[in-house]
Amino acid sequence: MFLIGGIIVKQNTKIMSEGRFALILLAPTLLLILGLLLYPLIYSIYLSFVDLNITNPDVGTEFVGFRNFMDNLSDPAFWNSLKITFYFAVVTVIGSLLVGLYAALLLNSKIRARGLFRTLLLIPWAIPLVIVGMIWKLILHPNYGSLNALLMKVGIIHHNIAWLSDAKWSLIMLFLSEIWRSFPFVALLYLAALQTIPQDLFEAASVDGATKRKAFWHITMPYLQATTLVLLILRTIDAFRSFDLIFALTKGGPANNTEIVGLYLYKQGFTFANFGVSAAGSYIVTFLILVLVFVYIKLMKVQNIS
Q: Which intervals hold domain ABC transmembrane type-1 (predicted)?
């Protein structure tokens, strides 16, 4: 007889099966996961089909069917936020992949203090998003920001620019800050993939007279294809659910010029108390992300066939 997790089990007896015993041990964790994940999911689906009136509890909730979805699809502000989100996703996903790949190639080469640079690479990715937003807000401040000071010192500009208040520059600054924040994650995955490529292939290509550029396109990139697909999916999802960084920097301004769909849905739910519209909009965005992921996978399969 011995004690496991407060349950007395007799040796050489069949009091309970191993599967049932394992289920008992896992039950608290499973209940916690169901409570934190499944219940909010079910409740959000419920909210997307009802009109929840929190200002007048006596009215209660009213089932409205697909009206919340149609309210989103008929709102020009929703389509504008979706358009900005697509711009944001395309630029930041491509930008982070290119910068991350370049950083990974650099850190995979034989340079001094390579281990130190790999450690420093984690800093932008490890900083909380709100803190990243505060850092960039200080950098881009029109009066005492370091960006204006640097550009004026080298003679590129001759007066301070309100980067986050200017409709032309605000979205560009969001692109740069998001790429700076996200490229270390891309670089780490690419670096791990680069280290799995057999060096014999590069040596054989060099003997055959292949240049470094040809070796990169015909050896390195095919080996990175699977990693690129994973990064495309993860970074696209990350871009569409961006909120913290943009909220900390611009809150969607100026004149909704940087209001991505996450901010639009946040305002619908927590500013205008349209929780049903907000929940329905989130599922429209989820559907769009699934479509993009499907397209990514199809394109990768076509490339593999060709």
A: 82-296
Q: Which residue has the tokens 């049932």?
A: 20
Q: Could you tell me if 66 and 150 are in contact, meaning their C-beta atoms sit under 8 angstroms apart? A: no
* Dihedral of the alpha carbons of 98, 94, 262, 122, in degrees to the nearest 10: -10
Report the alpha-carbon distance of residue 149 to residue 30 in Å, rounded: 54
Pick among 1.25.40.10, 1.10.3720.10, 1.10.10.10, 3.40.50.720: CATH of 67-305: 1.10.3720.10
109-150 tens-digit pLDDT = 877 777 787 778 888 888 888 888 889 999 998 888 889 999
Tell me the pTM: 0.84
DSSP letter, residue 161: -
Q: CA-CA distance, 234 to 153, in Å (whole number)? A: 39
